[in-house]
């Protein structure tokens, strides 16, 4: 699963340095970094983990939220953004809003309110007729009237949104026999694709 990770940090001390290690899915493709107090580093000894390092000796930080999302946009699919409000460092409700941007046009959006310790998923429907171009994910977090974070990241458009199954009438054909077959097209949700499609036999 591709993922986007966002965490937040505060200045709370001097002459200290702390590493925070949080488990993340394999095949991570994308990282959002927020603030100058830390950076993300791959842990070569454990491919299932992402090490978050706070290298500046005069600062240490406590994470307050994590945002995870895919880096691919597929027509007709549901784009998911997962958000966790971490306790005990986050106090009060966290309002998160996410939007999919194509060019300069917002094509889908979702929002949620989380209390410390909550996990929620923002679901956005990608239009069936979506085309390539510049796609971006915009994520904003606020607490009351205070903006906690605002990030925009580029996404990759994947036009392959169908699963196509071709079933012949028999496994082996002899000379003079007629070849018959049927084509089944399914969306990412495993539902039949209704629009007409041209099929060529070469």
UniProtKB/TrEMBL annotation:
Top-rank taxon, per record: Eukaryota
Region annotation Disordered: where it falls in the sequence: 1-26
Compositionally biased intervals (Basic and acidic residues): 11-26
InterPro entries, alphabetized: A2M/Complement_sys (IPR050473)
PANTHER family: CD109 ANTIGEN, MACROGLOBULIN / COMPLEMENT
Protein name (database record): Uncharacterized protein
Classification lineage: Eukaryota, Metazoa, Ecdysozoa, Arthropoda, Crustacea
């Amino acid at each position: 699963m591709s993922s986007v990770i966002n965490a937040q940090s505060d200045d709370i001390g001097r002459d200290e340095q702390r590493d925070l290690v949080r488990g993340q899915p394999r095949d991570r493709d994308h990282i959002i970094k927020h603030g100058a107090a830390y950076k993300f580093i791959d842990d070569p000894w454990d491919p299932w983990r992402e090490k978050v390092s706070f290298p500046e000796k005069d600062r240490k930080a406590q994470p307050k939220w994590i945002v995870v999302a895919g880096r691919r946009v597929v027509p007709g699919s549901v784009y998911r953004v997962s958000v966790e409000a971490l306790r005990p460092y986050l106090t009060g409700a966290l309002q998160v809003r996410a939007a999919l941007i194509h060019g300069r046009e917002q094509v889908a959006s979702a929002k949620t309110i989380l209390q410390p310790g909550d996990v929620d998923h923002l679901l956005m429907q990608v239009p069936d007729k979506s085309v390539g171009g510049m796609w971006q994910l915009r994520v904003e977090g606020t607490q009351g009237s205070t903006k906690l974070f605002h990030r925009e990241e580029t996404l990759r458009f994947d036009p392959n949104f169908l699963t196509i199954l071709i079933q012949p009438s028999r496994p082996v054909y002899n000379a003079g026999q007629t070849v018959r077959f049927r084509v089944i097209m399914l969306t990412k949700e495993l539902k039949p694709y209704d629009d007409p499609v041209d099929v060529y036999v070469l």
